[in-house]
Write a structure and sequence with these properties.
- With 399 residues, the chain is mostly beta strands.
- The chain contains 4 helices and 23 strands.
- A hairpin with a 2-residue loop joins strand 3 and strand 4.
- The longest helix has 8 residues.
């Protein structure tokens, strides 16, 4: 989501929150939701979804990881009320062998009760993504971080590490990426400090996270050269060679930036590129198929859903090409991406050519009531297609 605030609960929630385990939030799956055997494992997009304890799964803006034969689902734990749009509990983690039945593995990274901490209770922690660093044997989490009370002005990444996929994750640091570095695709004429005239133009511009007629394209990344580039909605991608990359929304939401991570995945190398300047994309979800890179994004309309955007590239560094809306359905479904916003695309191990589009239905008026929309990708030629299904079973699909 943009700089507008973002997006859990129950009578048993007081006890469970104190135990830092689970409670509210989103889709549903049949009998197995309460632990009963369910040979017909199925996913019901947009329905309430319960974990092995019978509590509603609470993991919004999720990221996913496969480790040790299990899938791990990391997401924002939401609570009811206006405060639920900020981090009151931390990052929740669930695990599953079949993508239908999810075990509550507790709070992977809790917020801090120390008011001096960067992840103190009441800050914003959004869109957590976890990747495994084979060289160090560590699980590394990146997330969008905003300081408590700062709205969306901090625009930082946060990093935490753990020895096990379910955590506990230890917060390491936060920062704005690529301080003192120019984008690899910025021409030499742009690699200069802002002039007085450009500074004056910036000071007169209203930048509220969405498109505007006078948006100062190509000025904001130069403004942020010394202190580091902004980072809001983000995701991580690990390529076939083991190199990892940060895809993030920067430049007051106007431009996507792609940055290569350091070998330990705890920082950026300073090698980065700008993608779609002045395009106002957010909610990136990236995957690779048959040597081509694909990226889903959304427009910047706050909490309200909009049409999904598909981009493709033969090189991760680009050029990226937008190829339209990948959704198929009614006009209303296509215009709202089935009333959801992208968060991740998961390649299913052992299922040839099966990728799952994963998205959230944000409900800022009652954050725990947000729902999850997971749909299998179909392929029309060499482009992915997202179609609505009332229910589907991962074991019965083959792309």
């Amino acid at each position: 989501m943009p700089i507008y605030p973002k997006p859990s609960s129950g009578s048993e929630s007081v006890r469970r929150l104190l135990l830092a385990v689970a409670l509210p939030a989103v889709l549903r799956l049949g009998p197995a939701a309460h632990g009963a055997p369910d040979p017909a494992c199925a996913i019901y997009p947009g329905a309430e979804w319960r974990d092995d304890r019978g509590a509603v799964i609470n993991a919004h803006g999720g990221g996913f990881l496969r480790s040790g034969g299990r899938y791990y689902w990391y997401g924002q734990h939401m609570v009811e009320g206006e405060a639920g749009n900020t981090a009151q509990v931390g990052i929740h983690v669930y695990s599953s062998e079949d993508l239908c039945r999810w075990r509550d593995d507790g709070i992977a990274m809790p917020v801090s009760l120390d008011p001096r901490s960067e992840i103190t209770k009441g800050c914003l922690i959004e869109r957590p993504k976890v990747i495994f660093n084979r060289r160090k044997g560590k699980f590394v989490m990146w997330f969008h971080l905003e300081g408590k009370g700062s709205g969306y002005s901090s625009a930082m990444v946060g990093i935490a590490v753990a020895d096990e996929p379910a955590g506990p994750f230890r917060f390491v640091r936060s920062f704005r990426p690529n301080a003192g570095r120019w984008p690899r695709n910025a021409p030499e004429t742009m690699r200069t400090p802002l002039s007085q005239a450009e500074l004056a133009r910036l000071s007169g511009c209203k930048m509220n996270g969405g498109p505007s007629a006078d948006f100062p394209i190509d000025l904001v990344f130069r403004r942020d050269f010394a202190g580091g580039q902004m980072s809001r909605d983000m995701t991580l991608f690990v390529d076939d060679d083991g190199a990892a990359y940060l895809f993030t929304v920067a430049e007051e939401n106007a431009t996507l930036q792609i940055s290569r991570l350091t070998d330990d995945f705890l920082g950026v190398t300073g090698d980065y590129a700008r993608v779609f300047p002045n395009g106002f994309n957010e909610a990136p979800a990236v995957f690779k198929r048959k040597g081509r890179y694909f990226m889903f994004t959304s427009g910047t309309t706050g909490w309200a859903p909009n049409a999904c955007r598909l981009s493709v590239a033969s090189s991760l560094w680009g050029p990226w090409r937008q190829v339209g809306n990948p959704c198929s359905g009614t006009d209303a479904q296509k215009a709202s991406t089935f009333d959801s916003q992208s968060t991740y695309v998961l390649e299913v191990i052992g299922q040839p050519d099966l990728f799952i589009f994963m998205a959230d239905r944000w409900r800022p008026e009652n954050p725990p009531d947000g729902r999850y929309v997971w749909l299998p990708l179909r392929w029309r030629g060499d482009l992915p297609l997202i179609e609505w299904k009332d229910s589907w079973a991962p074991s019965n699909l083959h792309g």
